[in-house]
Design brief:
The protein has 1 helix and 7 strands, in the order αβββββββ. It is mostly beta strands. It has a domain of about 90 residues: predicted glycosyltransferase like domains (Thrombin, subunit H). Strands 2-3-4-7-6-5 form a 6-stranded antiparallel barrel. The longest helix has 15 residues. About 20% of the residues have low confidence.
């Protein structure tokens, strides 16, 4: 084996032994508090002339959106209609990302509500550090 390949292997091993810190030097600023809550939703969207309707469950919610667990993935950036089966409230949202898989349950889908709403979820949120934010 050449000296350069040994050096590369040594560097790779050192990188594995000394992982980068998990501390984020740029902390995220949230627009609203997040709450872990399982709420039943009916999600509807259309692709061309085909309509889809699916039962989903929230994993996490905020006034601005949620992470949903769904068995069928809507397209990225799709406009979707949400019906909260618990609060009997309706809202439009858009798909903003996919967050992996919930083993045995489905795919995690991040959605943003078209307008921030505490009422849609049917619960009282914890006070935010800035009470001027919705």
């Amino acid at each position: 084996m050449s000296e350069s390949s040994n050096s590369a292997r040594l560097v790779m091993n050192e990188l594995r032994l000394n992982p980068v810190s998990n501390v984020n030097p740029y902390p995220e600023e949230r627009r609203s508090a997040r709450v872990i809550l399982k709420a039943p939703l009916t999600v509807k969207w259309t692709i061309g002339r085909r309509e889809f309707a699916e039962f989903a469950e929230t994993e996490m919610i905020s006034a601005h959106g949620s992470v949903l667990v769904m068995s069928i993935l809507p397209p990225a950036a799709a406009k979707i209609h949400l019906h909260n089966d618990a609060s009997d409230q309706d809202s439009w949202a858009r798909v903003v990302g996919f967050c992996g898989v919930a083993p045995g349950k489905g795919h995690k889908v991040a959605v943003e509500l078209s307008a921030p709403s505490y009422e849609f979820w049917g619960i009282s949120f914890p006070p935010s550090s800035d009470s001027s934010k919705p």
